[in-house]
Amino acid sequence: MKITEKLGEILHEIEEFKVETKDHLEQFRTSFVGRKGTIAQLFSELKEAAPEDRKLLGQQINKLKNTAQNKFRELTTEFEAKTESEAATQLDFTLPPIPDTLGTVHPITQVRQRIVQIFERIGFNVSEGPEIEDDWHNFSALNFPPNHPARDMQDTFFIEKNPDITLRTHTSSVQVRVMETEKPPIRTLSPGRVFRNEAISARAHCIFHQVEGLYVDKNVSFKDLKETLLYFAKEMFGKETKIRLRPSYFPFTEPSAELDIYWGLKTEADKRITKGTGWLEIAGCGMIDPNVLENCNIDPETYTGFAFGMGIERIAMLKYQITDLRNFTENDVRFLRQFSSISI
Ligand code: PHE
Description:
Blueprint: H1 3-16, H2 22-33, H3 38-45, H4 51-89, H5 107-120, E1 125-126, E2 132-134, H6 135-138, E3 158-160, E4 165-167, H7 172-181, E5 186-195, E6 207-217, H8 222-237, E7 243-250, E8 253-262, H9 268-273, E9 279-288, H10 290-295, E10 304-311, H11 312-320, H12 327-330, H13 333-336
Parallel strand pairs: 1-5
Antiparallel strand pairs: 2-4, 3-4, 5-6, 6-10, 7-8, 8-9, 9-10
The protein binds phenylalanine.
């Protein structure tokens, strides 16, 4: 058969080709568009044609090739549109809808919000600050001596050395920033994420959350501190909650104390959590050291203040009897869902 006849025949086949299934589409591709198809073959037969006909024939085969490619594109689009609309008609609109599931607020966020709420009612506002801190705000302004162990690599994550840039180890750094920029009276809470170089276990983590509080004014006394903490403990843990303060040490407070709440000794679990004493430590606190006020340009002759700080994870663990701190960061929805309907 002469090439020109073949050309006519192939064109006819292309025009008549109907696609019903995916296989048909593939058949079209291999027959006409593919490298082993009839059109590709025509190109190889071109060599045998008379030299004076080659140019014209070549052009005709090319034209046929374009026609085949265009038709293939058309067929593909048509076929896809058809399958899509078929799939759409298979949808059953009478089925009941999949219910929307509401997310839950993370327990750490819930407890943080609750702590903030309690202190807001007695005039505290909220301040935030950077998680990456310089030595001044995290340590020096807070009266840490140059070789205090907290400044050690073992306890602190350093980003740079000399001058030191660290991940903040507490949110007291935010309190320094507030005292540097605001005039007393200051009543502020600084909730946020803090970082310490600790091995992760059921009781410790290298990332956790704190809420620290600060009150600076004329005549702020230790009694004010104690009343504020008692108010907080009752709001957080119930009206009957008893507290006690034990002497302690922090470089930035003097005197310093540890706040305990009475947990009770009724059950075996109570004994275990409180190590047999009935008391549980929930916060550190104290009167702001005059050196710290001075470092922040507040006159310690005129003003006094108190500060306290607590771990949010610890409060959440006590409140919900959670025994492993790692639950808070593992994002296991079975754990998180338990907090979906709690309003504390
Ligand atoms: N900054 C202390 C800590 O990280 C807590 C604290 C704050 C203690 C304020 C006393 C006063 O442990």
